[in-house]
Fold these 2 entries.
Entry 1:
Amino acid sequence: MKLNLDVACPSPQAWIDAVMDNFDAFLIDHADCERKASSMAMSFVAKYPNRKEIIPELIETAIEELEHFQQVYQLMEARGIELPASMGKDPYIEQLLKLCRHGRDDRFMDRLMLASLVETRGAERFRLVSEAQEEPELERFYRMLWASEAKHGHIFVKMALSYFPKEKVYPRLQYFIDEEAKIVENLEIRAALH
């Protein structure tokens, strides 16, 4: 059983160039993304407390994302970079959220699909960051994150399959993959994860 699909549109070379040209800005955004990912996993627990089968994995994911935030923050501290007073808006996530349906079950499924896709895109981009690194420590760190994000991409599809038939899950996931490709093709290139 396939637990996720690959992204349909690879990240452009211009994106990794922008990241490597302003790695400090990328680290700030990356830290924000890890905080948001941890909050997102816990928001599933808060909004769907009756979905008991997935709560332990959601908590584990939230803790792992928070640990990633801690690790990115340590990199920032070592470089003398401060956390901003507020988290910036993420145009990528904002556009994906607009694709989510309303209705409790439909929205639950769509948010799981969206989470899987965001993690899969993160894995693809962390792989690019890892491969572009000249510092061995950063290369190892982003390689570890690449593997972790890929695992999270699978987890959210597995969660959806706990509650919905595969005949509904996979077409919806493909819809998000196709729409996400259009979003990525039109995203402003910046030194940010998305």
Entry 2:
Amino acid sequence: MGAVFFYHLTRTPLEATLPALLGKARQAGWRVAVRGVDPARMGWLDEKLWLGPEDGFLAHGVAGGEHDAAQPILLTCDAQAANAPSCVMSVDGATVSADEVQALERVCILFDGNDQAALQQARVQWKTLTDAGCSAQYWSEDSGRWEKKAEK
């Protein structure tokens, strides 16, 4: 049974936080699906990952390619990622079900704490998932470093 980790972004933007979390997931040996809601935004994240430091390059692809199933990290808007991930990282409000949380090693929900709609959606997701019995942690960077603020 997996767990869902909520990452409340207030200081560091998604394009800086996501590579760090992806690196940790890959170190754990997990295949990852980064799930979004807008294909153009997935293209933007793809570009940001390509522009990262060479020594920290994260092999990845955008869904719809010939080798989706082989990608260690797949950027997608589909609920069923072709790369059979152990971890799903939800961005921009992409939905995640309690069944997914329980079936995967980890689910990460990254949300912009400066966006009231994103903040409200994350609160709804927290309640929905924890009410369904999912183990959850809430992480915040308000103090300047990541701290676990809640666990259920």
